[in-house]
Amino acid sequence: MSIVHHGHQRPAPCDTQQAFFRTSASLITSTPSTSYAGSPLLCSAVSQKHRERSVCVKATRTQSAEGSADVSLSVNHLKNSHGIYDTDNTDLLPEDHSNFVKFFRAASSYITGHRGSTFVLVLPGQVFLQKHLLNRFIQDVTLLHGLGTRLVLIVGAKTQTDLILQANKQSPRYVGGYRVTDEVGMQAATQAAGAARVEIEAQLSRALAVQMVRRHTRSTPDQEYHYGPAIRVVSGNYVTGRRRGVVGGVDFGSTGSVRFVQVTGIREQLDAGHIVLLTNIAYSAAGEPLNCNIFDVASHAAIELSADKLCFLTLDEVKALQLPSWLPINDAEALIDRHMMDQEGLTCPTDDRPPGSVPSQQQLKVPAVRSGEIVLDLDCWEALQFPSSLLTSVLVCRNGVKRAHLVDARVDGGLILELYSRDGSGTMISTDFYEGIRPASPVDADSIAELLAPLAAAGITKPRSRSEIVSELSNFTVLEREAKVLACALLLHLGEARDGVVCGEIAAFCVDPGFRGSGRGDSLLDYVEQAARAKGIRRLMLLTTRTADWFEQRDFQAAGVAHANPLLPEARSAKIDSSRGSKLYSKELLDFSGPGRAALSTPLPGKRIGF
Fold first, then answer.
1. Reduced to 3 states, what is the DSSP secondary structure of residue 2?
2. CATH number of domain containing 378
3. Which of 145, 424, 465, 575 sits in a 20 to 30 Å window from 221, CA-based?
4. 295: left (phi over 0), alpha (psi -120 to 50) or beta
5. pTM for the full model?
6. Residue 429 φ/ψ, nearest 5 degrees
7. Taking every annotated instance into account, which residue ranges of this chain make up the domain N-acetyltransferase (predicted)?
8. Residue 416: domain span
């Protein structure tokens, strides 16, 4: 049995990037180009008598320290009586159009890349209880759904359950990392989970603004206006669990551990364009409900569904760690290891060890597998006193999920910025797509020369002697695997071109023939592009005679014959051998910083890659 409800949602106010994206989202979702059940945005669900509308959009110009004009967008909204921001009349002023287009172009590759991807989104109970954060989350969920992503929402109820128990003069009881769920506790858990589910379904059931429908959606011969399908939210008995039972003399009652999720059933709903909603409640083979940990549900769902991403909404527990924008999984595990060494007297009571025993690092990070089922040891996690969202992220990335994201729930539009901009707004944990990429060292000179020699002999690249390679070694980047250099690239800073744009040149770009087609060239190019941004380069140039197609597929544009080309600085043009007939290709490096965000003048190379 499953429950299907319909709904739409409106966005809350946001700063410029989110405002631009959300303003356009209604057009994307209300005029779908495929049969995918998209969902419109920018809706009005409250009747006129409940409205208190006051929208003022203005552009302000300020002078930076250098005297250049900086355009920012100020959007003032008043809430209606339901506490929802009304943005029906938010329009872009002409001076904001360039920023709108700039952001959309920057996001376009992510829109395409994410379409059809499966995202598992986790909303903990403490975030759910803050209604303004819940409203923002639902708005972003609506937008993600409309952009063609397949969404599984997991809503926690731990905090709500504790509050219900306390309201009934009952004290929540925990032993290690598990709640002791007696009959009263189970009633509170099901009440909290049910209320959370109903609230999510209700918020996703808001109707589309009539004026938006009339202006931008399709009509049919037998219907004057097309009001489009609502978002369909499906929940049901998709999580299967088992009782924790009696451990160390403690009867945990109806506390459960997840065995697995119903993969086939969930995928059928996702294929139908529905959002799947899961909670902390699982069901046993005996037909009884069980109270499970939300991170247990999330890890099983993400791994077993082969999700492309697992995203957590977080609060202070993650912010306090001051994590970088990108955390390779090896670095994340090293962070956990350092924390373990700092924890004195760490103990870990489990089924197999008595209370007071010390867990191994491996036991804290990697789940046990019994009969093909993942078994988390939440006692170890509790003993570690580290954010469960980070531990779960490492776990799923080690078990087939490509990426996990930790997003501060208090950042308006944080999910959108995290998923549709290069630098994101939170922390991405992933298998290391840049694994083995590093600046070249003196020991790499012979390997680089060996890689480039066949290309030089074929006339594809300029011949370089070993001494020339050594002299330019500080500008080389290499990709290494098992002590063997598989690819290399040279990045040269050319200074300002005649039009004032700071230029860089990528040269000596080569991937070992035995490893082409594996994505290593894309990883290396992306790494070098980010290194160029870090150096202030805004136009990347390439001189080539035979490899133009590969670079054109990666957004390099033909710019004519290289010799005496005005896009190049004069000093570089003078060094070009006109007899080679090299063609010039250029790529503008977009500045992904936006109003209110730090400029990307000093990002670490290779911080984020791909989708």
1. strand
2. 3.40.1160.10
3. 145
4. alpha
5. 0.70
6. -110, 130
7. 435-611
8. 2-430
What is the distance between the alpha carbons of residues 511 and 520, in angstroms, rounded to a whole number?
8
Highest-confidence segment of 8-12, 147-151, 317-321: 147-151
How many folded domains does the chain comprise?
Answer: 2
Same domain, 391 and 446: no
Same domain, 447 and 416: no
CB 262 within 8 A of CB 278: no
Q: Residue 469 maps to which CATH number?
A: 3.40.630.30
Longest dimension (CA), the chain: 88
Q: Is 234 helix (H, G, I), strand (E, B) or coil?
A: strand
- Of the listed ranges 211-215, 348-352, 416-420, the least confidently predicted one is 348-352
Domain co-membership, 421 together with 461: no
Q: Do the domain assignments include residue 94? A: yes
User: Are 221 and 275 in a shared domain?
Assistant: yes
Nearest to 134 by CA among 83, 176, 94, 93: 83
- Do 464 and 405 lie in one domain? The reply is no
Q: Which residues fall within 8 angstroms of residue 339, CB to CB, at 6 or more apart?
A: 384, 386
Would you place residue 49 in the very low, low, confident or very high pLDDT band (cuts 50, 70, 90)? very low
Between 296 and 500, the more confident residue is 296
State the DSSP string of 21-90. Answer: HHHHHHHHHHS-SSSS-----S---S-GGG-----EEEEEEEE-TTS-EEEEEEEE--B-TTSPBP-TT-
Q: How far is CA 157 from CA 191, 252, 414, 609, in A?
A: 9, 18, 22, 34
Helix axes 131-146, 16-30, angle to 10 degrees: 50
Contact criterion met (CB below 8 Å) for 96 and 59: yes
- 465 or 218, higher pLDDT: 465
Query: SS3 for 171-190, per residue?
Result: CCCEECCEECECHHHHHHHH
Q: Do 28 and 99 sit in the same domain of this protein?
A: yes
363-407 tens-digit pLDDT: 444 454 444 567 777 878 877 788 999 999 999 998 989 899 999
Residue 515: pLDDT band (50, 70, 90) is confident
- Last residue of some domain: 406, 430, 454? 430
The model's pLDDT over 2-24, given as tens digits with 9 standing for 90+, comes to 444 443 333 333 455 666 666 56
Instruction: Please report, as a single letter, which amino acid is at residue 326.
Output: W
Does the residue 527 lie in any domain?
yes
Q: How many CB atoms lie within 10 A of CB 67?
A: 6
Asked if residue 598 is part of any domain, the answer here is no
Does residue 607 lie within any of the structural domains?
no
Considering the domain architecture, whether residues 70 and 193 belong to the same structural domain is answered as: yes
Residues 261 and 238 sit within 8 Å (Cβ to Cβ): yes
Q: Which of 411, 430, 449 is the last residue of a domain?
A: 430
**Beta-strand runs (E) in 56-134:** 56-63, 69-76, 118-123
